[in-house]
Specification:
The protein is α/β, with parallel strands linked by helices and about 450 residues long. The strands form two sheets. Strands 5, 6, 7, 8, 9, 10, 11 and 12 form an eight-stranded mixed sheet that branches. Strands 2-3-1-4 form a four-stranded antiparallel sheet, with helices on both faces. Strand 8, helix 16 and strand 9 form a beta-alpha-beta unit. Helix 6 packs antiparallel against helix 7.
């Protein structure tokens, strides 16, 4: 299909089908689809809104659509199902799109992608949805099923949150899952200042709102892809969620120190740590995969960070060329349930898919901690809301490593989860953004 034949709906449907076929990351799949589509800014925005909206509301959309099928027990063909979701999202959630246009454009997109044999079926179901939509209702109440359909989060994940954090916090997490996160950035204070970057961006019609804390944190608004901005390409800032910046604050690095970020890709925390140390000291950033190491190298070069050494290495094994360090950050691979606002497909992971992660996290912590000097600080973090990957891993580490003591965490994030003071679970309403967990440990002297 030539780019001239691709509409916003076609691009969105194409990306959704690619997600189903390849189980990829939503941002990478959509970026690749849009890059080849040749759409203007307005159509790119529509395609993005439709793509992410369908991913985010999948369970809710399927519930409504099932009531328009002759036999709800019979699942449609996967191609037809994604087209139905696209059409239903426009009908139910995009007020500016006329119902007739939602149906017609969805059918046209389906035909353009080779699904003409399903066009009559999709057309009929969507027109049935239009007729019935005023009478459709989601189940009421606070049962896991009702909450699942309301927020499009699987029941088992809701139950996990309720057991682990209590019903009030679980409700907060569900409500946050359907909100749009702000775009947080980190000012590269080795090259510019917050006011200078703000003035530069304002000249191009963009808004940069600097935060009081952490130092260098800001919210960028009014842009599409920040990587296309001149200021980004000149290394004046990098994109980093506020919660990730708070994790770096816990480590509290100082000029002249030696620091290791042992699971560093894509590099945002290592970049922030290197900037905070000025021109002295050294940050070692390692990752298992060479392709991700190259990505970090490109970022470090763009930001002009000379006190950052990037290496390939398996953190579960002895990593060569990393010396003993004063500070250690272990931001371990995790299930990612804390970032479902940005990557909505993550919410549909089954808990069975992530049950092996705590063993990996404990192995990384055990091996990496051997590189810490006596008196040094270790911070373990994840971007997930899962007690098995968070509190349980931190408690196990202390139990298995008598040479470490818990270190109280004191930063500008409100505590909403009851837990020991050396742990901190971050939530969107607590002065953070993405869902993160951190635990801090101090290695004994001698």
């Amino acid at each position: 299909m030539s780019p001239s034949n691709i509409t916003a709906r076609t691009a969105a449907l194409q990306a959704l089908l690619a997600m189903k076929q390849n189980d990829g990351y939503s941002n990478l799949v959509l970026d690749g689809t849009l890059a080849s589509a040749g759409l203007d800014r307005r159509d790119r925005a529509l395609a993005s809104a439709l793509f992410y909206g369908v991913l985010e509301r999948r369970l809710t959309l399927d519930y409504y659509l099932a009531q328009c099928l002759r036999d709800p027990r019979k699942k449609p063909d996967p191609t037809a199902q994604e087209a139905l979701r696209c059409g239903a999202y426009q009908i139910l959630y995009m007020d500016r799109v006329p119902d007739a246009a939602a149906v017609n454009e969805t059918v046209n997109a389906l035909k353009a992608l080779g699904g003409e044999r399903y066009s009559g079926f999709v057309n009929g179901v969507l027109r049935g949805l239009i007729r019935k939509k005023r009478g459709l209702r989601l189940p009421e109440g606070t049962s896991p099923r009702a909450l699942s359909l309301r927020y499009s989060v699987p029941e088992e994940l809701i139950c996990l949150w309720q057991r682990g954090y209590g019903e009030a916090v679980a409700q907060e997490l569900l409500e946050a899952s359907l909100t749009r996160p702000e775009l947080y950035v980190r000012v590269n204070q080795t090259r510019t200042t917050g006011p200078e970057l703000q003035a530069s961006l304002e000249q191009e019609g963009l808004t940069l709102a600097q935060l009081e804390a952490p130092a260098g944190a800001a919210v960028l608004a009014g842009c599409g892809d920040p990587a296309e901005l001149r200021q980004f390409q000149e290394g004046l800032f990098h994109v980093q969620d506020l919660s990730a910046q708070w994790v770096c604050e816990i480590l509290n690095v100082r000029p002249g120190e030696t620091v290791w970020d042992c699971c560093a890709a894509p590099g945002g925390k290592a970049f922030t740590l290197a900037q905070a140390m000025g021109s002295t000291g050294m940050v070692y950033a390692t990752d298992l995969y060479p392709s991700r190491v190259r990505l970090m190298e490109e970022g470090a070069q763009r930001l002009g960070l000379e006190n950052l050494t990037i290496l390939a290495g398996d953190a579960t094994q002895e990593v060569q060329n990393v010396p003993l360090v004063d500070k250690l950050l272990c931001d371990a691979p995790c299930s990612g349930f804390g970032v479902i606002r940005r990557k909505p497909e993550i919410r549909y992971k089954s808990l069975a898919q992530v049950k092996e992660l705590p063993a990996l996290q404990r192995a990384i912590l055990h091996r990496a901690s051997e590189k810490l000097k006596p008196g040094g600080l270790l911070v373990y973090s994840t971007c997930t809301w899962n007690p098995a990957e968070n509190r349980a891993v931190a408690e196990a580490f202390l139990k298995e490593h008598a040479s470490f003591l818990p270190e109280k965490i004191e930063i500008g994030v409100t505590r909403t989860v009851e837990e020991p003071e050396y742990m901190l679970t971050m939530t969107p309403k607590a002065g953070a953004s993405d869902g993160f967990f951190a635990a801090a440990f101090r290695k004994k002297q001698g």
